[in-house]
TrEMBL record:
The gene is hpnC. It is an enzyme of class 2 (transferase). One of its GO terms (molecular function) is squalene synthase [NAD(P)H] activity. Gene3D superfamilies: Farnesyl Diphosphate Synthase. PANTHER family: BIFUNCTIONAL LYCOPENE CYCLASE/PHYTOENE SYNTHASE. It comes from the Bacteria. It comes from Ramlibacter montanisoli. This is Squalene synthase HpnC. Keywords: Transferase. One of its GO terms (biological process) is terpenoid biosynthetic process. SUPFAM superfamilies: Terpenoid synthases. Its EC number is 2.5.1.21. InterPro entries: HSQ_synthase_HpnC (IPR017827), Isoprenoid_synthase_dom_sf (IPR008949), Squ/phyt_synthse (IPR002060), Trans_IPPS_bact-type (IPR044843), Trans_IPPS_HH (IPR033904). The lineage of its organism: Bacteria, Pseudomonadati, Pseudomonadota, Betaproteobacteria, Burkholderiales.
Length: 285
């Protein structure tokens, strides 16, 4: 059964800077990690891809949530996204996955739909971090659960890394998100740099825009580094996987810096030549 039974949510080729279930991941965890990623990626596409209306997206996210609830109750595999929830149900039973992070992700995707271009933007950094607490942090917490790391300090460090990764993606994707009506620059920061939060189409032409992006990247880098000690608390190959994820996020920020923080004009990308630098950084963490 396809995850997308009609053309309203036609899958796109997703650009990802960060590895998912890579060869560094412990083999026994690849299936549950892939199931979690499939669940999150599909919900994200319902919220953000294709030509469905806002009402259709919200209705389908509700159906998706109901299928998640059925899956967690032990009744998966027969709904619209049967194969997906069958895989997630297997992972949930085998690894006793916590339920709340899965529902938090869906709440974030609903928020994505509701923040249309007519009701756009985030008030300040705290407002944006609150969104990331549902859109990004649950994935890190689910992965830590799989790794058997559940103490409060590790969860806080994971949240810092995941929020920083989300923010790094926002700052690198400005040239793509702005035309689509996705506005993640905090209004408070925009005003401080002379950008009108109510006129996002004017942002790319504002000469202060690169300085704003630079400041946000510095904040994001500090946040990433505050969570980086978690790599020493995650065991074995998973710890090395996390090192590469952190280095990938830091490398994106360096790429943004190298282009003068002008990501409202174009998006940077990581390539094979970045891998040695990331490996070297991972080795010395």
């Amino acid at each position: 059964m396809s995850a997308f039974p009609d053309d309203r949510y036609r899958p796109v080729e997703h650009y990802e800077n960060f590895p998912v279930a890579s060869w560094l991941c412990p083999p026994r965890l690849r299936r549950p990690i892939a199931a979690i990623y499939w669940f999150a990626r599909t919900a994200d596409d319902i919220a953000d891809e294709g030509n469905a209306t806002e009402g259709e997206r919200l209705a389908d996210l509700l159906t998706y949530r109901n299928e998640l609830a059925a899956c967690l109750a032990g009744n998966s595999g027969s709904g619209r996204w049967g194969n997906l929830f069958a895989a997630l149900g297997t992972a949930r039973v085998e690894f006793a996955l916590p339920e709340q992070p899965l529902f938090d992700l869906l709440a974030a995707f609903r928020q994505d739909v509701e923040k249309t271009r007519d009701r756009a933007g985030y008030r300040d950094r705290a407002d944006l971090v609150d969104y990331c607490s549902r859109s990004a942090n649950p994935v890190g917490r689910l992965l830590l659960h799989l790794y058997g790391v559940t103490d409060a300090k590790s969860l806080a460090q994971s949240d810092a890394i995941c929020t920083a990764l989300q923010l790094a993606n926002f700052w690198q994707d400005l040239s793509v998100d702005l035309p689509r009506g996705r506005y993640y620059l905090p209004a408070e920061d925009c005003r401080r740099h002379g950008l009108d939060p109510s006129r996002p189409r004017s942002w790319p032409m504002n000469p202060n825009a690169p300085q704003l992006v630079r400041e946000l990247c510095t904040w994001t880098r500090d946040l990433m580094l505050s969570g980086a000690p978690l790599v020493h608390r995650v065991p074995g190959r998973a710890g090395w996987e996390l090192r590469m994820v952190v280095q990938g996020g830091l490398r994106v920020l360096r790429r943004i810096e190298a282009m003068g923080h002008r990501t409202m004009q174009r998006r940077p990308a990581l390539g094979p030549l970045d891998v040695p630098t990331m490996l070297w950084g991972a080795l010395w963490m």
